């Protein structure tokens, strides 16, 4: 698989089979992903890979917590600005519409949307997950490094025939994640990522992208 194919076939998959992901494949992907760039090569990502019984426990606790309406953990960062301005607000709302219509859920059916959202904490059925932490003392440029690293992981997973779904949703139950992964003091959770083989029976609509001219400007003579 070449890089273009890895980029264009990567998408947030929200339905996985229970086929296990071999440990050596995960090690190969994460060893190669370590070549992602970072400012001054400080490599600020701290990754915890969870599979097997610990993941089953984590899913169970998180799903129970959310299903019984327990409050979210206190936020360590805002996922989005409170007032999302144009064009981001429109793009976010278009994504919500696409996502729920793919599942056959009406926008106003809050309960069905809630049920669909709960699948986040079951890792959409995936048998493996990683959790990406960063040192609380690091700043915005290092958060950007995390993004480059995580995309590198997701593209390498494609090369192995695997799919993924990055999930900030895990930050809402970060203390439950901490109970399982026991991160050292001083780290904060950015996101989780479900990893596995795609379940082809799960419906999805491919998200679109803004045309090149909306986000890219060439300055030339
Ligand atoms: C940092 C980050 C956090 C995300 N968090 C979630 C999440 O919690 N749950 C989810 O279902 N998708 C999540 N996504 C997936 C996005 O919704 C998805 O990438 C976006 O809609 C574009 O679709 P595509 O990845 O299928 O191309 C996240 C993506 C990123 C990059």
TrEMBL record:
Domain Nitroreductase span(s) in chain numbering: 8-197
Instruction: Give a GO molecular function annotation for the protein.
Output: oxidoreductase activity
What is one Pfam family matched by this protein? Nitroreductase
Annotated InterPro entries:
Nitroreductase (IPR029479), Nitroreductase-like (IPR000415), Nitroreductase/BluB (IPR050627)
Keyword list, A-Z: Flavoprotein, FMN, Oxidoreductase
- What PANTHER family does this protein map onto? IODOTYROSINE DEIODINASE 1, NADPH NITROREDUCTASE
Protein name per its UniProtKB record: Nitroreductase family protein
Q: Which organism is it from?
A: Mycolicibacterium agri
């Amino acid at each position: 698989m070449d890089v273009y194919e890895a980029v264009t076939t990567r998408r947030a998959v929200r339905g996985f089979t229970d086929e296990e992901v071999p440990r050596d494949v995960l090690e190969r992907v994460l060893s190669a992903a370590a070549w992602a760039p970072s400012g001054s090569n400080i490599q600020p990502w701290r990754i915890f890979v969870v599979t097997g019984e610990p993941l089953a426990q984590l899913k169970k606790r998180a799903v129970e917590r959310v299903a019984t309406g327990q409050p979210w953990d206190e936020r360590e960062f805002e996922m989005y600005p409170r007032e999302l301005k144009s064009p981001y607000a429109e793009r976010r709302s278009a994504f919500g519409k696409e996502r729920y219509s793919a599942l056959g859920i009406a926008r106003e059916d809050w309960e069905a949307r809630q049920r669909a959202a709960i699948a986040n904490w079951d890792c959409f059925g995936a048998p493996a997950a990683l959790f990406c932490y960063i040192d609380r003392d690091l700043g915005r440029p290092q958060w950007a490094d995390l993004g480059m690293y995580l995309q590198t992981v997701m593209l390498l997973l494609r090369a192995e025939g695997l799919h993924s779904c990055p999930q900030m949703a895990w930050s809402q139950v970060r203390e439950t994640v901490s109970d399982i992964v026991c991160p050292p003091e001083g780290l904060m959770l950015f996101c989780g990522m479900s990893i596995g083989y795609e379940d082809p029976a799960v419906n999805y609509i491919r998200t679109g992208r803004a045309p090149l001219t909306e986000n890219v400007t060439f300055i030339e003579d």
